[in-house]
Here is the input.
Amino acid sequence: MVTKLKNFNFNKNTKAVIFFLVIIFFVIAMLQLQLGLQKKIDPECLVEPEFYQSKAFNKEVNDAMRLVSLIAFQHKQLDQVPFYYYFNNGSEEYSNKDETDRAFYEQFNRAFFYMEEGAWRDGENAYRKADFGYELFKKKTVAYIAYTDYYLETRQRQWDQDRKSLMPYAIVLCVSALLGVAALIAFCILAVRDPQELRESQKGKEPGFRPEKIHTEALLLALGFGVWWFITGMAGIIGKGIALGIKMDMFGVNFLELFSADNGTIAIFIVVVSALAGALFLIIIYSLLRKWREKTLLQDSILYRIISKLRRLIAGAARYLCYGDLFQQSSYAMNLYYRQICFLALTIFNITLGVYLSTKLILWAILPFVAEILVIAWYTVGNKRIYDMIDQEIRRRTEEQIKSERMKVELVTNVSHDLKTPITSIVSFLDLLSKEEPLSEAGRDYIRILQEKSERLNKIVTDLFDLAKSTSGDMTLKLEKIDLGKLINQTLADMEDRIVASGLSLKMILLETPVYIQADGNKLYRVFQNLIDNAIKYSMAGTRVYIELTLLEGRAIASIKNIAGYDMTFTPQDILQRFARGDLARTSEGSGLGLSIAESYTKLCGGDFQVELEGDMFKVFLSFALDNE
Amino acid sequence: MGARILVVDDDREIVKAIDKLLSMEGYEVLKAYNGMEAIDTLMSNDVQLLLLDIMMPRLDGLSTTMKIREKRNIPIILLSAKSEDSDKILGLTMGADDYITKPYHPQELLARVKSHLRRYLVLGDAVNHLQSTDIIIGGLILDTAAKLLSVDGDPVKLTATEYKILELLMSHAGRVFSAEEIYERVWNEPAYSIENTVMVHIRRIREKIEINPKEPNYLKVVWGIGYKIEKL
Here is the structure.
């Protein structure tokens, strides 16, 4: 952890240092460039040691040729040119050396140029090849240009001197540029190294500016524009410097003219501008590299987002059309899906072809029509095959399900039988035992307890069996139109003994009119019997049990509310679990299946069963759709 | 009395328990442990009543019942752990006279055996003495002339209201009467909140005519509709 942290810090600091190094070298280079430019010296002198071979001299010669040629139109002498010249087009004659003889000019053979047949040509031994010429002059026009050796030597001395004064700037420029490039490469390598760590650091510590969140297009655009600006600016400087003499241009702006300022101000200005431009460039490079490294170059681009959104839109539309995703569940469905796609494609093709042909060759239009019939036939037959297979599959699965369901019911029946047979023996022999004489008082008591418990065991088994049958769906229901109010009354009357014995009073709020529902009377009787039984069993002594029947929105709602005689620490979901008992000690009688059976039977009859707890109030709500026919 | 009873069950302990129970009451008990044995025993012995388990090896109780019914008319009581209504209906349709679910209460079994024997042995003659005014349903004979009821030959005392209710239900056996209908026809008064009143009487009648009032054979509640006497 510590080493990792150190590593991370080292990384971060290194990157910062290199970042600034790149900028510093860049600034130095720019500064040197500008200072060099301020010397107003053609930088060609740095690379070309001989003046007469330089492009600068070549240009000078070309200018001279043009000037001499222009005499034909301007009809006047050239003044103050650094060369000797002679011009004669038959009618006029000009020269700055009162010499008409070619030999005179030709003696300066290192830099002699002449016009012949309307075009400029080099002298035999000329160092420079003339690349300037007009074919439009009269054939008889004669012209010579010659530079003296003295002139050339003077220029060569100047040329050497210029080189000496410019060289330091050039060296510093080159070195700083090289170092800058090296630092830039190092920076790039650092940027792409260990992206995970960097991402984490950005997640945790640097929530502010995150350059890699900028859209790729914006970065590329800025980078492209910057590079273009820099290159054109540089090209402008160098190009102008060579061709037209030195100008104080940088990035297309002539700072001297702009500010007419002194050298110090210009230097400061250059430092600030190049530092900012360099920093911006580095950030852009960094972001792009990070994106590339983290493979988010595409995702972060606006274009990509637009395209992917569009793709999703089209895919959604296609899905809506063909429901492909619904088909991916089984091989049958995939088969249907592909056939459907083929069908659609072929149909569209046929229709298009048909429409096209019907405008051109009406007789040939029958072909796509016939083809479409064939396609439809193929589609229908293929689908039918798949449908048949699906049909078989469904039948097979249904049969399997029915079989397993039947086995489940059989299991329940068998288990129930196997449990009841021993209970029968127990009950029978207990009865016989109780008749044995002599029997001690204690023995009689034990037998009574055994009889009670076997009775209870029997009840649990019966309830369990009933519940298993009802939930396995094997129960045969006899649904008929019954009066729910009457059923509640009958149940209460049937249980009157127990209610009276419990000492609780029942408060009934029933309706005057019959409440008809569709249900199985025997099952529903069990439901109410169980619920009232529960209310009697678990109510606090002396409290009232409320039984209410109301109508609500086309449904009959029967509710049974009682005050629990114990602390209800369960939730309504808990109490509906099988074998759940309100009192956790399980002291009182009952199988613990009463509520489960009530719920299951209610649902079998198409009703809704809900338990609610409110303080000590235990409430059960049954609701059934009314049958008003 | 000495009536001869055949007990058939594949569970030997249950057969033994029933043997003991019936022997103590003075019946002669024959035992069999599957359907084939039962038929064999029945062929070679004079048996007055059959107690038959349903789920047995070789020949189950229902098939045995059908086979016996081809030749004999003795009372057959089915004993079964199957407690579904559909099982009971199937058993009775096959020709059994009664259906007791396991685990049965020994005293109830005894009562049913007695009732069926009495009906078979004693009432067999009595049927000849019946008058046209009698309504007969199973072991119930209601003499509408003398306003007397007998259950399995034993006279039972009824109050005037109980008699009227029973007469109404028995004379329309199978028909369901609502409590209001019963009240209006028996009390001759408009009915108003009388469910309890009627139910109390129904319960009392049941206690008099049913062996097990909780699982009545004759007088049944049709939940949510009313009451009826089963048509047997």
Observations:
- Chain A touches chain B at residues 413, 416-417, 420-421, 423-429, 431-432, 435, 454, 458, 462, 465, 469, 476, 480, 482-484, 486-487, 489-494, 496, 519, 521-522, 524-525 (CB under 8 Å).
- Chain A has four domains: 2-38+157-293, 66-147, 323-475, 476-625.
- Chain A has 18 helices and 14 strands.
- Residues 366-435 of chain A form the longest helix (70 residues).
